[in-house]
Specification:
Layout (H helix, E strand, L loop, with lengths): L2 H19 L1 E2 L9 H5 L12 E2 L2 E2 L5 H18 L3 E3 L5 H12 L5 E4 L15 H4 L3 E4 L2 E2 L4 E2 L1 H11 L3 E4 L10 H11 L2 E5 L4 H5 L6 H4 L3 E5 L10 E5 L4 H12 L5 H39 L2 E2 L11 E5 L6 H9 L3 E2 L1 E3 L14 E5 L1 H5 L4 H16 L4 H12 L23 H4 L8
Parallel strand pairs: 1-15, 5-6, 5-9, 9-10, 10-11
Antiparallel strand pairs: 2-3, 4-12, 7-8, 11-12, 13-14, 14-17, 16-17
Helix pairs in contact: 3-11, 4-10, 6-7, 11-14, 14-15
Length: 436
């Protein structure tokens, strides 16, 4: 028996059990359908296909071309896009490709501060800085948890950036894309919209439509509200296709992940069929859990604006010990979320944020609706406000989760957290490892 293999397999098995029992509230995660998930272990995971469809640098890509061409076709149709590149291997990679395509070192970019909700790839210590961009920040209205439209226009005209970047990691409400178009055109800037968190809501027609509102480029990851495999995608106008494609390959990607591509194509087809219903329920669930938590006494932000128009809600928990401490206490009760910076925090306070972020996309994917949001809210209340022992709450949370083990909004509603593995008898040497 190989002890290293046994160790890894047992850890994987424990991980599966952990998530089978957990209440998943991380806003940047989701679960694939069994059909999409099954493609990750196909022979595609072994292969290379550098280049474009029909213009590969390797032989053996006939069926890979079919898969990629069909995936692009579905994506164009679903998002009404003129051009699509499905080769970025992450949302950050997609952002970096957009930066390489439409800027050079020393150029300026306007994006959100991390503490105002911006993603790390939008700022100087990640992708924007890697490209050598001078980073300026959108003026932010903390009461509305959104960009200040009038001040934004003034800043665009004054700073004259090459890129005006929208989108966020903490993303409650649509961003003022339409309001930025005239100013961006006047100074020759490209509008890039990072839709990583809200791609599934855009696909379902339940959030803003950035391409119709004037964005030149839409970048995204494919595994948050869009319930696909981890990866990235870029949409753009036809006249920008050459720059985008060159920035992806050979600029920032060599071989893209072909097994992920096939799974993504399946998920695109699922979202064409079920995306509207799925996106609508995600937002209903987010609004409902926010209202319930607020009534319980939690400081859920933006009550005046109905808390959210996305999958996310945000709660100020500074008085409860801060986001990190709260997240750790909830994890002890099998409730999984993350601490999150709020506008009054410094970007350097990532290890001691004031808030927590809750996402409803995975709960919705496994069939939960408004009634279940109340149950989940009660678990948070018991741990954080009533200060019950987390172990006691965990028993009830795990019992509740047993009722929600199947993927919804897809063609094959199988187990959300099932896992099967085939292990060689030669490696096991008589040892039995139960891989459920």
């Amino acid at each position: 028996m190989n002890a290293d293999i046994v160790h890894i397999l047992n850890a994987v098995r424990s991980h599966q059990s952990y998530w089978r029992d957990a209440i998943p509230l991380i806003a940047s995660e989701n679960v694939m359908s069994p059909l999409a998930r099954s493609l990750l272990s196909s022979d595609l995971s072994h292969r290379y296909a550098e280049g474009k469809v029909g213009q590969r640098f390797y032989q053996g890509c006939k069926y890979i071309d079919e898969i990629e061409a069909k995936t692009i076709e579905i994506a164009k149709d679903l998002f009404k896009a003129e051009h699509v590149n499905v080769q970025p291997i992450s949302g950050v990679n997609a952002n970096l490709a957009a930066f390489f395509a439409f800027s050079k070192p020393g150029d300026k970019i306007i994006s959100l501060k991390v503490s105002d909700g911006g993603h790390i790839s939008h700022v100087k210590y990640s992708s924007a800085g890697l490209r050598g961009l001078k980073v300026y920040h959108h003026p932010f209205d903390a009461k509305k948890m959104n960009i200040d439209e009038e001040m934004m226009v003034e800043e665009i005209l004054e700073v004259k950036p090459k890129i005006v970047l929208f989108g966020a990691s903490l993303f409650l409400f649509p961003h003022p894309v339409k309001e930025a178009v005239d100013a961006a055109r006047e100074i020759g800037a490209k509008i890039v919209y990072d839709g990583a968190h809200v791609l599934g809501l855009i696909a379902g027609g339940k959030f803003q439509d950035p391409l119709r509102e004037g964005a030149d480029i839409l970048t995204a990851s494919t595994h948050k509200t869009f319930p696909g495999p981890q990866g990235g995608i870029i949409f753009c106008k036809k006249e920008l296709a050459r720059e985008i494609d060159s920035a992806v390959f050979p600029g920032t990607v060599s071989n893209h992940h072909l097994h992920h591509l096939a799974a993504f194509g399946i998920t695109l087809a699922e979202m064409k069929a079920f995306g509207q219903e799925y996106a609508e329920q995600i937002i209903k669930n987010a609004k409902h859990i926010a209202k319930v938590l607020y009534k319980m006494g939690f400081n859920a932000l933006c009550k005046r604006y109905d808390f959210t128009e996305s999958h996310q809600i945000v709660i100020d928990v500074a008085d409860l010990g801060g986001g990190k401490e709260v997240a750790v206490r909830l994890e002890d009760a099998s409730i999984i979320l993350n601490g999150n910076l709020l506008p009054l925090d410094s970007d350097m306070d990532a290890d001691k944020p004031s808030g927590i972020r809750i996402g409803t996309q995975e709960l919705t994917r496994i069939g939960m609706k408004e009634e279940e949001m109340k149950e989940v809210a009660e678990f948070l209340e018991r741990v954080l406000l009533k200060e019950e022992p987390p172990e006691r709450v965990k028993k009830d949370a795990v019992e509740m989760k047993k009722r929600y083990q199947h993927v919804h909004y897809c063609f094959d509603t199988g187990g959300a957290y099932d896992f099967s593995c085939n292990i060689s008898n030669i490696l096991l040497k008589g040892a039995f490892i139960d891989c459920e």
